[in-house]
């Protein structure tokens, strides 16, 4: 499943390997495209997924989402891109006022630099991403992140930081590890992911109502997301089946099923 959640690791791996990369959870991938100018490459991707999960939490009200993006790579190692997805933060399911989070579109703008380290199997990726929800009645959902990622062969580690996370949640840190491996000669790729989300504690009053912050509905200040995905390429299309979940309770996500463990099926194609 294409997912912004793994963007830094995905971009780094694709740039260093110089090949197409399918996301296990949710992110655009830079792929080798036609060279229009020496040192400049452009590519695209499209996807249809049964549930857009970002860091383990549904961004599409557990429904289908259409996704896609374009990426440009120019030497040595620099890249920029845009990625978008349909979203649905169904305000009818959330008792609190969700004005500013009622749009149906997400657009991510990003750029950075990735490179291998000498003649080793190590790589580094440093970048910036801005999450924009242009259809919202307000800008409470918009936020920025800075990230740095390191990779060694099929293993990658990414750290991301936001000074004011989604829903005006203040500071946020994210640490994620990813491992991808081909399963013998089957043509299947196994992708493993685990991420740790560190939030500013949401402030609630004596009745349990949120008074400050708002990413979670309780005073929980950290949670873990995880996924296991199998991807198979056939007819120039990537077919992915992923098991995605978190350790959050329903009360943490406004009494919804958005953070429950689920199975997600995604069809994606590189352009």
What does this structure look like?
It is a single chain. The chain is mainly β and 271 residues long. The chain has a single domain (4-270), classed as Beta Barrel (Porin). 4% of the residues lie in helices and 51% in strands. The chain has one helix and 17 strands. The chain has one helix at 7-17; strands at residues 35-37, 40-49, 53-54, 57-58, 65-74, 78-86, 105-116, 122-132, 143-152, 155-162, 172-182, 188-199, 203-204, 210-212, 222-234, 237-246, 262-270. A twelve-stranded antiparallel beta barrel has the order 2-5-6-7-8-9-10-11-12-15-16-17. It has a two-stranded antiparallel sheet with strand order 3-4. The protein has a two-stranded antiparallel sheet with strand order 13-14. A hairpin with a 2-residue loop joins strand 1 and strand 2. It is globular. The relative contact order is 0.18. The model is unreliable at 1-35 (pLDDT under 50).
List the helices and strands and how they pair.
Layout (H helix, E strand, L loop, with lengths): L6 H11 L17 E3 L2 E10 L3 E2 L2 E2 L6 E10 L3 E9 L18 E12 L5 E11 L10 E10 L2 E8 L9 E11 L5 E12 L3 E2 L5 E3 L9 E13 L2 E10 L15 E9 L1
Antiparallel strand pairs: 1-2, 2-5, 2-17, 3-4, 5-6, 6-7, 7-8, 8-9, 9-10, 10-11, 11-12, 12-15, 13-14, 15-16, 16-17
């Amino acid at each position: 499943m294409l997912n912004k959640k793994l963007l830094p690791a995905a971009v780094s791996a694709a740039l260093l390997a110089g090949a197409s990369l399918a996301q296990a959870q949710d992110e655009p991938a830079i792929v080798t495209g036609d060279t229009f100018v020496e040192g400049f490459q452009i590519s695209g991707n499209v996807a249809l997924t049964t549930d857009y999960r970002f860091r383990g939490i549904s961004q599409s009200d557990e429904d289908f989402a259409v996704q896609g993006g374009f990426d440009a790579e120019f030497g040595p190692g620099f890249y920029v891109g845009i990625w978008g997805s349909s979203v649905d933060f169904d305000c009818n399911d959330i008792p609190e006022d969700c004005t500013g989070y009622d749009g149906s579109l997400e657009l991510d703008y990003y750029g950075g630099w990735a490179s291998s380290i000498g003649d080793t199997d190590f790589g580094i990726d440093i970048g910036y991403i801005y999450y924009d929800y242009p259809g919202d009645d307000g800008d409470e959902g918009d936020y920025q992140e800075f990230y740095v990622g390191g990779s060694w062969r099929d293993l990658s580690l990414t750290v991301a930081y936001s000074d004011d996370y989604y829903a005006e949640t203040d500071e946020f840190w994210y640490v994620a590890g990813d491992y991808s491996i081909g399963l013998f000669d089957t043509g299947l790729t196994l992708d493993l992911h685990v991420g740790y989300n560190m939030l500013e504690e949401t402030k609630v009053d004596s009745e349990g109502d949120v008074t400050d912050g708002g990413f979670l509905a309780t005073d929980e200040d950290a949670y873990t997301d995880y996924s296991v995905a199998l991807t198979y390429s056939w007819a120039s299309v990537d077919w992915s089946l992923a098991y995605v979940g978190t350790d959050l309770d329903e009360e943490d996500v406004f009494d919804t099923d958005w953070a429950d463990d689920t199975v997600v099926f995604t069809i994606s194609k590189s352009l």
